[in-house]
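Chain A, query sequence.
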Amino acid sequence: MKAETLARLQTERAAQRPVVLLTRLTDGAEHLWPQDSVSSALADAARAALGSEKAGSVTIDGEPWFIHPHNPPLRIIVVGAVHIAQAMAPMAAPLGFQMIVVDPRRAFATTERLPGVTLNTDWPDDAMAVLKPDARTAVVTLTHDPKLDDPALDAALKSDAFYIGALGSRRTHAKRLARLTDLGHGAEAMARIHAPVGLDIEAVTAPEIALSVMAEIVAARRGAALGDPRPISAPTEGRISIGISA
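Chain A, predicted structure.
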């Protein structure tokens, strides 16, 4: 790789922008997509490589190219070092996610309770300003405390996060939406929030809820219909569980 190309690649990766290194095998010509202008066929191949996250060789217009995607890391930012977060933690890495738990309550945010997880004990508004959720980031709030959840949701809605989920009943979520409206968010933006968080598998225990959340995040990432936010219906007096209680 040419020194100039390497420097540009490092800059893009440091900024956590998805980029594809395109190398023509006949003469070593290099391009970075989407920064460089390339043919539509080559751009389509680069886009597909980002989606599959697999490098490989292709022949386009009779010329062999090696296509190497460089995606930013997949992340899950969880607000609340609670039991559900503990159950999510061992699932995240095998699914390819770095998990970051944000909670200023230092008695909860400990390596003993959350081994192998990146911990951030700043208040969520400060933490989100540093973490900068992007299109490879899922944001999940679990505390039921507006002082912690609302700033994180406010930041997530202003970002390109591919998934935003919030724990709580429909009644709790209606109150949450009112507060987010006061912060300037419209109905279209707030419709991005998955609430109640997780797939509807009648989850009751913390591990079950963690499983439902992780499955919904994977579905959203892969573009499956199960990963779409559900329309918000009127609050009902249904069963109460860890996953849907107010």
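Helices lie at 3-14, 40-52, 83-92, 124-131, 146-157, 170-182, 187-190, 206-222. The first helix runs from residue 3 to 14.
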